[in-house]
Specification:
Blueprint: E1 3-9, E2 13-18, E3 23-26, H1 41-63, E4 71-79, E5 87-96, H2 102-116, H3 118-122, E6 128-135
Helix pairs in contact: 1-2
């Protein structure tokens, strides 16, 4: 994996580009001088966790011939009040179709969190990751 990070605007507006030319805007939070022109690094990290787990879940369910028409994840992440201020808790709420077998979804979530998600495995093990399912 190769990425290129370029500052586009002072003080902290960046563009992160991958080898395929896909670009993501990044900025710092407003309280330290950011302009809110992109996601913060911590938002990207929490989003990467939700995305990684979601890919695993959808792949696991697809192998069981379960196709979700509606799927979304809400992330509620809490950071420590310190410097640095890493995550201490990340809560994920998975919203899925009502007709899907919840036990299979719960199992897919746990498999991802416990075994498959590379992002989760890259995080500090002290971060408490919890989840729930919301039926829509």
């Amino acid at each position: 994996m190769k990425l290129e990070l370029n500052r586009r605007e002072k003080p902290y507006v960046f563009e992160l580009e991958n080898e395929n030319g896909t670009i993501c805007k990044i900025d710092s939070s407003k309280d330290i001088g950011g302009k809110e022109r992109g996601l913060t690094p911590m938002e990207l990290l929490a989003g990467a966790l939700a995305s990684c787990i979601s890919i695993d879940i959808l792949m696991i369910l697809n192998k069981q011939n379960i196709e979700l028409d509606n799927y979304s994840v809400s992330v509620d992440a809490k950071k420590k009040n310190s410097v640095p201020s890493p995550f201490e808790k990340i809560h994920l709420v998975f919203s899925i179709d009502a007709e899907i077998d919840l036990l299979k979804v719960e199992r897919a979530i746990q498999l991802s969190i416990d075994k498959y998600c590379s992002v989760k495995e890259s995080l500090n093990p002290e971060i408490i990751i919890t989840s729930e399912i919301n039926v829509i």
